Each structure stands twice: as structure tokens, then as C-alpha cells.
Amino acid sequence: NIGLDMKNSLVSNQTTTSTYLAILDEKGDMKAAVSNMDVLDEITIEFIQEKKQVIENSKICVIDTNMPTDIINYVLDNFKNTDFFLDTVSGTKAQKVKNNIGAFHTIKPNRIEAEILSDIKIDSLGDMIKASEYFLSRDVKRVFITLGAEGVFYNDGNVHKLIPSPKIKVINATGAGDAFLAALAFCRFKNYGIDESTRFSMAAAILALSCEKTINPNISEKNVIKKMKEIGLY
After folding, report:
1. Residue 88's domain is classified under what CATH number?
2. Is-contact 198 154, C-beta < 8 A?
């Protein structure tokens, strides 16, 4: 028992839990992947309405674009006082939120997803600044553009910076983005500034990259901070 509260989850009797299968190469990078997310189609507006108090009383709600478009739109339109964090998932699925990107407090696209969402080609630091300023102009509060081995660029309208990624040995490339976003949510709860949030989240992602399992069983605040110190992100 890890203490995860599941009482507000939708339990389906019609289909299986979402499944994701990835094939990695000898470097730990993903070469191909298949997924079955059909169960998410069972999330209805009626179900969301039943969870109104849960969403309204949540400081943060993470939305990923595997969810049906009508459900995403309903949630964003009807819960204005909750901070929504966006997991773009993929370039194709990110297009679901292109027209209401400003409803999100924090977004974490990669370079390609940022290009799709902003219609700005990103080939330089100047382009990243321009794309992030587009998102900020739409009322996004914090923008993080992940660049793989190049690092992470952030902008909150007050400060922007590119933090290079430390050199590490990648064991498994799956799960790093999830760890990064989970860490961003954690940092929001802890009221970390944007630079500290970025560094903490990069270290969390590196812990994921350094483990054969998709979710590193040793991930914790203590171990993330320890990793930050080890790799020069502290």
C-alpha cells in the first residue's frame, strides 16, 4: 500500500486499464510504441460533474491529452479556479488543446509540441523565447520546453533561461516526462520558484532515465535533492 487515494477513480467493467508498450534500442531510447487508451472514452461529462467538488477543491489538476477532447474542454471551461497542468503526450494529441492553451497554468511541451501549439518554428534560443512569450500572452503562467539531451528552457514572464542537461547514462527513456511533470506539480505545492522547480524536475526525470523500470521505485524528495547535488543542479 503506497497510500494513493483511488476512491475518485472511474472503474470500468467494459474494458481494460490503459496499456502502453514501448520498444527501446540498446541506448535506452524509444524506437516504437503502441498504446490502448480506449478506457478513457468512458469518462463522461456526467462523471466529471459528480467530481465537481474534488476538482474545485484541488490546488492542481493535471490533464493529459489522451482524454477525449469534449471532456478536456468541459473541465477547462467549468473549473476556472483550479490550476491546470498540461501533459501534451504527443504532437498529434497536443492539437486538442491548441485553441484553449491559455486555460493552463503550466505547460511542458517538447520542442515539436511547442512548435505545433504556437505555430512558431523553433531553431534557436530566440525562437524558444518567442514561442514561450506566445504562450504567456495567452495567459499561461509557466512554460517549460523540454529539449531532451539539450536541457530545459523555462519562462514565466519575469525570467527565462535554458538549463543544460547533465551528461548521464540513459537506461530507459520512458517515464522521464511523467517524472518531470509530477515533480513540477510537487514543486508548485512547495511554492518553489521557477528555476528551482526546473532543476528539481530535471533531477526527477534523470532518476527515471537511470532506472530500468518506467517509475523509479526509489524516487522521493530526498533522493531527488541528492541527485541534484550529484549532477550539479542544486
Report:
1. 3.40.1190.20
2. yes
